[in-house]
Specification:
Layout lengths: L6 H27 L3 H38 L3 H22 L6 H29 L2 H26 L3
Length: about 160
């Protein structure tokens, strides 16, 4: 039986699907081509691009809107502390790849892919379950509206910037 996500979480779950696809592709490419240094360097570039185009805004919305709203309602949540720590590690890996492109290793790619996958699964299985079970309906609806509005602003801003590219 399939469970439908709360409206406030739908875009996050959609983004998570893309993150899992990316993680699995990275894992597959490392397995198939990990001994080819130029492929590994290119995978590092792909990760940096994926982070900049997909993950940065996703993380921002969760960190500035979702996490604080949940903490206001439920207090400090250990899962949010864990997710923040994992994001620090993901960002560090991305910055390493950004600044040391020729030094990117198979282990860097594998670490990023594995951490991204486990991070997403924790959000889907623990954080979102907590949200759906414990956040009052009125708060969840307000949060859904706020996230939708923020996404529209982000998309409009991105379109304006891309016109100059």
């Amino acid at each position: 039986m399939s469970t439908q996500r709360h409206e406030a979480l739908l875009q996050f779950s959609y983004d998570h699907h893309h993150g899992l696809v990316m993680s699995h592709r990275l894992q597959r490419y490392v397995q198939q081509y990990g001994s080819n240094a130029s492929v590994v360097i290119e995978l590092g570039r792909v990760i940096v691009g994926f982070f900049d185009k997909e993950l940065a805004d996703h993380f921002k919305q969760e960190e500035e809107i979702l996490f604080p709203a949940m903490e206001v309602e439920l207090g400090d949540l250990p899962v949010i502390a864990e997710l923040r720590e994992e994001r620090t590690r993901l960002r560090s890996l991305v910055e390493w790849m950004r600044t040391h492109q020729s030094g990117v290793s198979v282990d860097d790619i594998r670490s990023f892919a594995d951490l991204l996958e486990s991070h997403i699964r924790k959000e889907e299985r623990v954080l979102f379950k907590t949200f759906e079970e414990q956040i009052p309906a009125e708060t969840a609806e307000k949060l859904a509206a706020q996230l939708k509005h923020d996404k529209l602003l982000t998309n409009a801003h991105t379109r304006r910037i891309s016109q100059w590219d």
